[in-house]
Automatic annotation (TrEMBL):
Organism: Hymenobacter lucidus
Annotated GO biological process: methylation
InterPro entries in the record: Methyltransf_25 (IPR041698), SAM-dependent_MTases_sf (IPR029063)
Claim: Transferase is one of the keywords in the record: yes
Protein name, UniProt field: Class I SAM-dependent methyltransferase
High-level lineage: Bacteria, Pseudomonadati, Bacteroidota, Cytophagia, Cytophagales
Keyword DNA-binding appears in the UniProt entry: no
Amino acid sequence: MSRTSASDPVGHALLAFLHGTKQAALTVHSNVAEEEPLPASYFFRTLWEMPELERTALEECRGRVLDAGAGAGCHSLELQSRGFQVKAIDASPGAVQVMGARGVQEAACHDLFALPAGEHYDTILMLMNGLGLVGTLDGLQRYLQYAKQLLAPGGQILATSSDISYLYEDEDGALVINLNGPYYGEVEYFMTYGEEKGAAFEWLFADAGLLQDYAEEAGYEVEFLGEDDQQQYLVRLTLKQQNIGNN
């Protein structure tokens, strides 16, 4: 899809950067933190500009790769340079246009849950807190089942997520969380680029223990491959043998 007239602040910011507006930046709005800028340049980072967790994830990729929420395609391009066959997907038509212009060989505008039937991948890559694409805990549960249709035998999901409980600490370091309310890692966002406002969307930050519980319940083996000082972690999920092929 090359249609970019609809509200697509992410896509329009990436296109502006691609075409020479190097100061192009999104503004990120959420219900848990102050608004903050997100430079479009961050989506165009090179391998050595990537955080260590992302470089580790790229080293762990194998086989045919699905790059989910691929943005401007920095991970896909790096993997292509290493000889991988990669399909890059993003919900932003503008982002997909940028990826095509940058040389991503297979880029498509897809919702996370709307891939064509019959496609199989050895690695599903979900970086930049990419597990958040599932939206909510219900979405996580649903995606862990859906991914079983996508994973080839022996396939893996490589994803990053974060524990954001620190946002709810009081002055003494105690957590102030409503245990009867929604999970604290379910966050509502919208993006703006200049005067353009995007649609609101949900994003999940899953603490490691909760992610492990949900994944094991769904029939996955869980291996944590690293953590940074921002409480972000990289996890590998692989299907237990008896669950391969189950939907």
